[in-house]
Design brief:
Phosphate propanoyltransferase; 14 strands; 2 domains; Barwin-like endoglucanases; bacterial microcompartment; 219 residues; alpha/beta; 6-stranded mixed barrel
């Protein structure tokens, strides 16, 4: 069993442990998903890494995140828009083919832009920003988005719950500030472990923190 498979198994065991025993009789338990709260961050291309931090430099791993192979780096940058700037924005690794900046709706007002709400990698209508690093700066067209809330899921789990890649589901949140989140996009890949990504604003509105469990409603 490799590391990815072990993490997927651990996620499913966590789901099962939090499922009422009565659900085992005649009806499949509802899928419960751990939350991952995403603060504003930057993904860099090799070209922009060289400009911002120096030719040939590499990201310095600070801590792993739940999705296999991804990590928070020690490196941070400043992002600057027409109206203002935000300092100490974390870079996430590994390096990507294209630079992408993920912010919150509130950050739009600070920066003076209108970044669209869309899935990661959908940069056709993304906003432009300047990125400032310790060794240089770069002005990037079509780089800034507000990430659409989404669930990462393995193919085996998707098959078990009859969920398709890019399907939209609704998610129920319990607690004093609980509610229902509609239009949650599911992304299915063998590289994923079970986790729902929402931004800080959504998490605060519903009283959610990392690893809190939410329930996928009937789809």
């Amino acid at each position: 069993m490799n590391l990815t498979q072990a993490k997927q198994l651990a996620d499913q065991l966590l789901t099962n442990l939090n499922t009422p025993a009565s659900s085992a009789f005649g009806r499949q338990a509802k899928l419960r998903v751990p939350i991952g709260v995403s603060n504003r961050h930057v993904h860099l291309s090799r070209e922009d890494m060289d400009i911002l931090f120096g030719q040939g430099t590499e990201l310095t791993r600070l801590r792993a995140v739940k999705q296999p192979g991804q990590f928070a780096a020690k490196e941070m940058v400043t992002i600057k828009g027409p109206k203002g700037e935000i300092q100490k924005v974390r870079v996430l690794g590994p390096l990507r083919k294209e630079t992408q900046i993920e912010i919150s709706v509130g950050d739009n007002y600070v920066l003076g832009i209108q970044a669209p709400i869309c899935m990661s990698g959908e940069l056709a209508n993304a906003e432009s920003l300047e990125i400032i690093g310790p060794q240089g700066s770069v002005k990037k067209d079509r780089c800034a988005i507000v990430a659409w809330r989404h669930i990462h899921m393995s193919p085996d789990l998707a098959l078990q719950y009859d969920i398709k890649d890019e399907q939209k589901v609704s998610v129920a949140v319990s607690g004093n500030r609980g509610g229902v989140l509609d239009n949650v996009i599911v992304r299915v890949s063998p590289a994923f472990v079970l986790e729902m990504h929402i931004d800080v604003e959504e998490a605060n509105a519903l009283g959610l923190a990392n690893d809190a469990l939410v329930t996928v409603m009937s789809n």
